[in-house]
User: Which sequence fits this backbone?
């Protein structure tokens, strides 16, 4: 599969993932706060990481304006955090802690596949 169509599919998944923000009516404010906070944190961390060339996004939207992949930075990562918070909302602390590994491992596997098989993300320094 070519990189640009895959990036478009990933973006579409992120846009459709917004439905998870509206899943629980009473907690909508909490989900938006989590979404915005994670967006802010990832924006602050991603800039220096890209400048030091720990990660590169060769195929991205608006390459002249952004060094980062805005589909991941502003859609997928914050949405995955909201989904995790919704999933663990009423869990006991031990199950919540164990589910961190479930979510982290799945994201790491997808990112690893993308790095090896596409030109969407590169980790030049390992």
Assistant:
């Amino acid at each position: 599969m070519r990189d640009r169509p895959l990036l478009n599919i990933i973006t579409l998944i992120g846009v459709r993932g917004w439905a998870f923000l509206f899943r629980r009516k009473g907690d909508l404010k909490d989900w938006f706060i989590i979404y915005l906070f994670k967006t802010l944190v990832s924006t602050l961390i991603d800039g220096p990481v890209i400048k030091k060339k720990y990660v590169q996004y060769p195929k991205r939207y608006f390459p002249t304006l952004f060094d980062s992949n805005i589909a991941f930075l502003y859609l997928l990562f914050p949405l995955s955090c909201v989904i995790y918070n919704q999933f663990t909302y009423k869990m006991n602390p031990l199950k919540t802690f164990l589910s961190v590994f479930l979510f982290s491992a799945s994201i790491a596997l997808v990112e690893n596949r993308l790095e090896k098989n596409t030109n969407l993300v590169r980790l030049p320094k390992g």
User: Anything to note?
Assistant: The chain has four helices and no strands. Residues 58 and 119 are 6 Å apart (CA to CA). The mean pLDDT is 86. The radius of gyration is 15 Å.
